[in-house]
Design goal:
single chain; 78% helix
Amino acid sequence: MKRHLPLILLMAMAAITGYSQSKPEIDSIYELGRNVNHELSTAKARNYCQQAMDAYEKLYGKASDDYINALNAYAASYGDEKNFKKAAELEQQVLELCEKLGHKHPRIGLFYENMGYYSYMANDYKNGSKYWELALPV
């Protein structure tokens, strides 16, 4: 905690002064959320993912690859807690945002696979099969 204090103070000052975070800074927050999700607590991962989502939304809007990736990681935090219904709801948002992009998201196959898994585990077998089939050719 002590070694993170200067970074925390710097981020707090930036927020107070209205300093906008750069993409590399936001990417670092996103990576913390993605990595914490597998190494530490789900609550910390979700917090970092939410911070990244908020910052990416300000920078690019919701219909952007970066925001969508962070939302996918946020959904995964619910899947890790076995809250598959909530994970499926969030993954549905991921897929809806992908449709708004002017291009095919490079991770769309993973998103279909996730949606299939979360749906299946939430006892929605019809959607589970549907999204797993969509993931196959990607």
